Amino acid sequence: MAPRRPAAAGLVVAMLLAGCAGHTGPPPPAGCPPDGTAPTAAPRPPEPVGTTRPVLGGGGLVDAQVTEVLDPLPEGTPDTGCRLVSFGLRLLAHSSVVTVDLFSKMRLVTANGDFYQPYVEETEGRDDLDNAELMPGDERRGRVNFEVPAAVELSYFAIDSLVADASKPAGPVRPPPYRPGNWPGLGATQVADRLPGERLEVTPLKIMDPTPAGAGVKAGRRAYSVQLRLRSVGTRTWPFNPEITTTFIDSRGRNWIPGFVTTTAAPPFDPLHGEPGGKAQTGWVTGEIPGDARIVAVIFSPYTGVVYAWRV
How far is C-alpha 292 from the geometric centre of its chain's CA atoms? Predict the structure, then answer.
């Protein structure tokens, strides 16, 4: 199985193909058709924000908590005749490494029984909470957004056993400050294992913050880079550049995914030479983060359920 991010395009295509299938209410605006229909009665009585329930993601069990309902979301640019609705979400891992893939499990259900999957356009940056990699005892926080018809009444938001009331704005519930785990720091080498024979020495060396960038950084954001030293030490070629296996975590527990930033100050691996027994390579992984964000950790996850972490 490849890392999670290249699969995102397939999810988008699936959502577009879903169209208006099964719609039972009035025809919605062309810009925000439902993804399907759901029972008008929730699988369990909707609970208020702050309720925590176990959720099975792709690779493990986490506790999930809705911390806020923003309706409408004041950010972003919805399609004509639509509005954005946002749910603050908190995911907490237990005693094992967990890779959480919740995109296909998330449902926002309207009063007439239509359901919507998460909005695929960005509103806050590449925070991507429907996917997350967590070390034992770690947590991730962020938002999940939906686009729905402007006048539609909402009923509930569901992920497995978590069913939250979505009929009106609520919250926020403020969790305690986020603290990364007791992970190694810059300069520490960890050997990442993927499939049999695929092994990579990974050493974060230093941070560039802010990174001078030519493109890919919106107003109010900045580019952030981590320099990595990588060396293939297995018996098979390492298949991926680190941009698709690396995530930055900020002091609020949010994911920020590298990519789409143009910079000559922090040259990337172009490409990574992952052949066994090769020399170590040094390059940079760069992403866009909010102007006020403070990155506290770097996550490297080459496979579902395989996660390595450093404090920075």
Answer: 19
